[in-house]
């Protein structure tokens, strides 16, 4: 009986210890800094994702025309900053 109680206590302590050791996993769409610019003629769509609980950084994803895929833009690049500034100006 004492062995069972000791085993249960050990299992509970182990579970609490392991839970405390976990770090939050970032689920960002972009890995790395991203591209500094993209030719606007090749862009089909640009999506901007604000920081969230799942990813703590601003992400800009460009969908290219003709099924050429998606690319991540560096939000700190002049190209991205100018594009966002112009989009906000046209929106308002």
Give an overview in words.
The chain starts with a helix and ends with a helix. The chain has about 90 residues and is an alpha+beta fold. Strands 1-2-3 form a 3-stranded antiparallel beta sheet, with no helix packed on it. It is built from 2 helices and 3 strands. The chain has one domain (about 25-90): OB fold (Dihydrolipoamide Acetyltransferase, E2P) (Beta Barrel), CATH 2.40.50.40. The model has no long low-confidence stretch (mean pLDDT about 80). One of its GO terms (cellular component) is extracellular space. Keywords: Chemotaxis, Cytokine, Disulfide bond, Secreted, Signal.
Anisotropy-based shape? elongated
Oligomeric state of the chains in view: single chain
Q: What about the largest sheet?
A: 3 strands, antiparallel
Strand order of the largest sheet: 1-2-3
What structural class do the secondary elements suggest? alpha+beta
Count of the separate structural domains: 1
Helix content: 25-40%
CATH architecture: Beta Barrel
Query: Care to count the β-strands?
Result: 3
List low-confidence stretches.
none
Instruction: State the order of secondary-structure elements, H for helix, E for strand.
Output: HEEEH
Rounded average pLDDT: 80
End-to-end Cα distance, whole Å, is 72 Å
Q: Report the CATH topology name.
A: OB fold (Dihydrolipoamide Acetyltransferase, E2P)
- Radius of gyration based on Cα positions: 23 Å
Number of helices: 2
Family: Belongs to the intercrine alpha (chemokine CxC) family.
GO biological process, one term: immune response
Organism: Astyanax mexicanus (Blind cave fish)
Protein name: Chemokine (C-X-C motif) ligand 11, duplicate 5
């Amino acid at each position: 009986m004492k062995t069972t109680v000791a085993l249960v206590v050990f299992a509970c302590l182990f579970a609490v210890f392991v839970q405390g050791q976990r770090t939050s996993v970032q689920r960002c769409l972009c890995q790395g800094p991203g591209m500094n610019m993209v030719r606007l003629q090749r862009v089909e769509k640009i999506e901007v994702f604000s920081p969230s609980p799942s990813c703590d950084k601003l992400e800009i994803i460009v969908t290219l025309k003709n099924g050429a895929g998606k690319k991540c833009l560096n939000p700190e690049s002049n190209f991205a900053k100018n594009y966002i500034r112009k989009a906000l100006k046209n929106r308002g």
